[in-house]
Amino acid sequence: MKNGNPVVWFEIYADDLQRARKFYETVLQVELMELPSPTTWDKLQMLAFPSNMEAHGTSGALAKMEGVKAGNNSTLVYFFSEDCSIEEARIERAGGSVVTSKTSIGENGFMVIAIDTEGNTFGIHSMK
């Protein structure tokens, strides 16, 4: 793949999909939409983050699936922000917790690391 983003999808697993929906909609100020299961298998429920599947880039969904527990994962998703301190200020009010407050990562901008209502760790990245 030349000069492209190889990541095209992510799933953040939740035990309580509506609680997780409220958390991410509050912190990121976006609306998640119900996504029909990609198969006839009814054990998977998803709420998708806003996306344009025709454009190259990354999108994903909150997901709930029988047998897959939330939290304690080893993948860290970073969400884009104009200034990650804005979303950081919403995290605890939305029921999550901040692990690392806004921190400089040098020429690569700034980051916040947090834990959502389901025990998943995620990041927020901004250049200012």
Short description:
16% of the residues lie in helices and 34% in strands.
Describe the secondary-structure layout.
Blueprint: E1 9-13, H1 17-28, E2 33-35, E3 44-48, E4 59-65, E5 77-80, H2 84-91, E6 97-104, E7 110-115, E8 121-126
Parallel strand pairs: 1-4, 5-8
Antiparallel strand pairs: 2-3, 3-4, 6-7, 7-8
Give the biggest beta sheet: 4 strands, mixed
* Average pLDDT level: 88
* Separate helix tally: 2
Strand content: 25-35%
Kindly name the structural category.
alpha/beta
- Based on Cα principal axes, name the global outline: globular
Q: Give the H and E element order.
A: EHEEEEHEEE
Low-confidence stretches: none
The N- and C-terminal alpha carbons lie at a distance of: 29 Å
**Annotation, overall tally of beta strands:** 8
- Radius of gyration, whole Å: 15 Å
Helix fraction, binned, reads 10-25%
Widest beta sheet: strand line-up: 1-4-3-2
Care to describe what's here?
The protein has helices spanning about 15-30, 85-90; strands at about 10-15, 35, 45-50, 60-65, 75-80, 95-105, 110-115, 120-125. The strands form two sheets. It has a four-stranded mixed β-sheet, with helices on one face. A four-stranded mixed β-sheet has the order 5-8-7-6, with helices on one face. The chain is globular. The chain is α/β, with parallel strands linked by helices and about 130 residues long. About 15% of the residues lie in helices and about 35% in strands.
